[in-house]
Write a structure and sequence with these properties.
Blueprint lengths: L7 E6 L2 E6 L23 E6 L15 E2 L17 E5 L15 H8 L10 H9 L8 E4 L22 H9 L15 H7 L6 H10 L2 H26 L12 H4 L7 H20 L5 E5 L16 H7 L10 H22 L2 E2 L2 E2 L4 E6 L15 E4 L10 E4 L6 H10 L24
Parallel strand pairs: 3-7, 3-10, 5-12, 6-7
Antiparallel strand pairs: 1-2, 4-12, 5-11, 8-9, 10-11
Helix pairs in contact: 3-8, 4-6, 6-8, 8-10
């Protein structure tokens, strides 16, 4: 078997062609483990991770500016990865003459460069123009709340809808399109793929591969294949819990995926599955760009047994006089931060040479406003996680009081090699990247 960066293990499962990509093994890298064997740099990756309703003002901002900061109360959960996280505080959206529609100006400005800017491509798509044109998927968009809401667009009319189903993304990454078993051209259904495992379709090729690589790569491949099987087991549970009983019917997404207004536990599980799938896709070169919508701009996520959504709680809950913030809303925000950490850890868990997948990626956390209670667009929390292959210095708190949120987007573009000297429209236009974090 000839091995290179593009090696794919192929097989058949129930009439479906199965393909399994390989991670960056040592044998694909140069002697230092920091570039490909032909001397080309490791490809950079980008993911935006969006959740509306932000954090409570005064409870997320670090007190220290620059390196060596400590997280504010509502971001403490991220402490294990502090050295890889940049926090940007004090950023705002300039509304110009546009009406301040609830929850819309924030994501428009943060991810598209300005208010009322549907004609503009989003940040992820500008980046995909640079790093996404030589992969199987130019970009991947997913949603954890059961909807197809997306903040990714090519233009005013070309919106990239989010995929709400982890099992469908799994099927797309590993196998052919879903086929009805009642038709002549029957192919393996997602349930069969997850239960039998795509790994069973490549057993011989997997054993051959393991015999050809060194001890370090054998250990890495063993961890890699074990992780893939664990991910399939989780997907299998998702499918089994509510598939219809009727034989030989095509399961609809609605049969096993909850819809908008879903429980936050379901959103967190979808996030975990998507994290594993997207990390797989990036580590194996299927894509370099992804967009994740965790709960939408006006989040309808809720706890089991409660009709109150995260959104309504931010407006209706009284601020606790002892704590100084809304207690129930803070619980939801902690769930969000834990989910972000789980997403990032999926990238951090994939070892590549001397580093991890996270080391060549930039994950950008974005939200819609500064104070969800009042729909303000000042002091909007933004974060970058990962260095993009050393293009960003990390572990910094940048305080930019009153500057536009587009400065963060321009900084990410330049770190990922986009030849952009400016970004944004109207008063949100900026030519000023955060040079203090650019390496």
């Amino acid at each position: 078997m000839a091995l290179n960066r593009r090696t794919i293990l192929r097989g058949m499962l129930g009439g479906t062609a199965i393909s399994v990509g390989l991670p960056l093994l040592d044998c694909f890298l140069d002697s230092s483990g920091e570039a490909l064997a032909d001397g080309a740099p490791l490809p950079k990756c980008f993911a935006s991770w969006f959740q509306g309703l932000g954090f409570a003002p005064g409870y997320w901002e670090p007190e220290t500016i620059g390196p060596g900061y400590d997280f504010g109360l509502q971001l403490k959960t991220l402490s294990p990865l502090k050295d890889k996280i940049n926090i940007f505080s004090g950023l705002k959206v300039f509304l110009d003459e546009h009406p301040s529609e609830a929850h819309l100006p924030g994501p428009q400005a943060v991810l598209q460069g300005g208010v009322a800017a549907p004609q503009l491509p989003s940040l992820d798509q500008i980046i995909a123009d640079k790093i996404g044109n030589h992969t199987r998927y130019r970009s991947l968009e997913v949603s954890c709340d059961g909807s197809q809401e997306s903040f990714s667009r090519r233009s005013a009319t070309a919106i990239n809808p989010s995929q709400p189903s982890p099992i469908t993304l799994y099927k797309d990454l590993f196998g052919a399109d879903f086929k009805n078993p009642n038709t002549d051209n029957f192919a393996a259904v997602p349930m069969d793929m997850a239960r039998k495992s795509v790994l069973s379709a490549i057993t011989d090729k997997r054993e051959t591969l393991m015999s050809q690589v060194g001890a370090a790569d054998r250990a890495r491949l063993d961890d890699y294949f074990t992780s893939l099987r664990a991910m399939e087991n989780k997907l299998q549970v998702q499918l089994e819990k509510s598939l219809p009983m009727e034989a030989c019917t095509v399961p609809r997404i609605t049969d096993f995926e909850v819809q908008p207004g879903m429980l936050i536990d379901e959103a967190r599980e979808a996030n975990r599955l998507f994290a594993g799938l997207l990390a797989y896709a990036m580590s194996c070169g299927h894509t370099n760009v992804a967009s994740v919508n965790f709960g939408g701009a006006s989040s309808n996520l809720r706890q089991a047994g409660s009709p109150q959504t995260f959104h309504t709680i931010t407006h209706n809950e009284v601020i606790d006089s002892d704590l100084g913030y809304q207690k129930e809303a803070a619980w939801f925000r902690n769930q969000v931060v834990e989910s972000l950490l789980e997403f990032v850890k999926a990238f951090e868990s994939i070892k590549e040479g001397k580093g991890t997948l996270l080391d060549r990626a930039i994950i950008m956390y974005a939200t819609d406003g500064g104070d969800a209670r009042l729909h303000t667009v000042e002091n909007i929390p933004l974060m970058t996680i990962g260095s993009g292959g050393g293009a960003l210095k990390t572990g910094m708190h940048v305080a930019a009081q009153g500057d536009g949120v587009t400065r963060a987007g321009l900084t990410v573009m330049q770190a990922l090699g986009v030849p952009a000297g400016s970004w944004g429209i109207e008063s949100n236009t900026t030519t000023r990247a955060f040079t203090e974090v650019l390496a």
